[in-house]
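Appendix C: a fully annotated inverse folding record. The material below is reproduced so that readers can follow the format used throughout the book. The structure is listed first as tokens, followed by the designed sequence.
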């Protein structure tokens, strides 16, 4: 019940902000690049996943509007995946399409949230296995990854700040569906710097 009240209050506040008029018409287009810190949620196969560091790069465009709430669409290449304790690393790269509502609170400061579909484009695993039979030995394992689903869906939330022709953006992406195996979903922190080339 408390969550319902909080959600209702949040929607009401955003609606109030979005109903206000702003002299500035937001129509930014950005080139963005930055760093990812990604991991998979624990599943029945591994007890613990840890962070993989990668990069994100791409473009983002805002739909012109005259109020503080701005819709944007992006096309981003994102390195995701995870380190797995006792094995090695799972590299899982996606092309993501973030669809966001940006709420400008003050000048260039905005909070944002939305929905992000992604397409799996590359996957490699590399690590060391240990046999569980009569003879104990270690062997290297390397190969392609076949994800649970080729499509990935997530909820991105974040905050950004624009100064001049630059934007600093921080986001957290909550994965909604299984990625590597059942139960293993993406959790990604993204930090990026964008250059505004149309304003």
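Designed amino acids, in order:
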């Amino acid at each position: 019940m408390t969550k319902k009240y909080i959600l209702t209050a949040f929607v009401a506040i955003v609606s109030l902000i979005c109903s206000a008029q702003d002299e500035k018409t937001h129509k930014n287009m950005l080139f963005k690049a930055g760093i990812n810190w990604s991991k998979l949620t624990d599943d029945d196969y591994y007890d613990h996943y840890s962070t993989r560091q990668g990069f994100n790069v791409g473009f983002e465009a805002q739909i012109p509007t005259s109020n503080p709430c701005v819709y944007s669409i992006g096309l981003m290449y994102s390195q995701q995946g995870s380190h797995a304790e006792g094995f090695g690393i799972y590299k899982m790269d996606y092309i993501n399409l973030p669809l966001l509502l940006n709420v400008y609170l003050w000048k260039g400061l905005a909070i944002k949230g939305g929905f992000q579909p992604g397409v799996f484009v590359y996957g490699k695993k590399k690590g060391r296995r240990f046999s569980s039979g009569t003879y104990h030995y270690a062997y290297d394992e390397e190969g392609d990854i076949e994800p649970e689903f080729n499509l990935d869906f997530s909820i991105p939330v974040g905050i950004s700040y624009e100064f001049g022709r630059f934007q600093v953006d921080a986001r957290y992406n909550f994965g909604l569906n299984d990625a590597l195996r059942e139960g293993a979903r993406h959790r990604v922190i993204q930090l990026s710097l964008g250059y505004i080339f149309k304003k």
